[in-house]
User: What shape does this take?
Amino acid sequence: MVSAYGSVRRWNPEAELALVTAESLPEPYAGQLTRIGVETVIAPFAHRPPQGFGNGWASSLYHLDAMEALRTRGGTQVFIEPDLLCVRPLDAMLATVGDRVGAHFERAVMRPDGQGWDRYRRLCREMYAELGEPTAEHQPYLGACYVVPDRWSPVLLQRIDRAWRLSMDRFRRGEAGFSTDEQFMNYALQGVPVVEMSGHTRVVSTVPWQRCPERQEILPELTLWNLMFEKDRGFQRMYRYATDPASWFWTAPPEEFRERAAAIMSVRRPHIGSALAAAAAPFLRDIMDERLRSRLRAGCGRLLQLKAMVGPQ
Assistant: This one.
């Protein structure tokens, strides 16, 4: 979060930044975010799902509470997940969106069509019918970034509330409902004009089995890199630079910033730590149970954080 918010501040010095969280932040992170002008907004996890609801990603539903917490702020709001890195000012992206809502559907294009999407389509048909709305096929949007002008915030929140109530009713009846923020937002977006934002934000895959070399040429033109595979590696390495006001993170010119960020985040080629972890992953899956793998991941995370703190400049 410090690295992500730091990157937004680096290229948008006048932006109002807020981190919505259910609990107070520990030090040193609270102080580091405060120093770069990030307001901490405490809001309850009202959309916390009941036990047995959904198959995972339960914490993603807190995004719905973050939207509610900021609904009276006015202006255009940009919601990002903490695995996005900002590499240029937001101005061009905001100009593209204008007075509509910005989202993008890239992940749906990247994934092969399988049983997961089939189940989602069936669920949409059932849910939309109960909500009294057309059940025509629609393109699912990725939930990593949304741009929401204040005029559309009440509409989105109203539709989210309808879908949430129905999902809870269906859960009590023993039936499936929407269970992630993406699914709720995909329903909500059907009620507003949407601009597709893949020209400004993309998934930047940094794992060897899902690399897209043809996208390298467009990376410098993007505003936000979605680095979903670097949560416990690249962002750990970036942290030490994001917290040092004298580092290149805060002083380098735009092109140098993007080149250094690409190297640290394994965008151009795998960082040695990422490459070793990726190479070992199949072997570890075969010889370890989930509990042991979880302990190993936690240990690797601590080692990477230590290296980020003491490694060479």
The beta strands are 17-21, 38-42, 76-80, 84-86, 101-104, 142-149, 194-196, 201-203, 224-226. The longest helix spans residues 290-310.
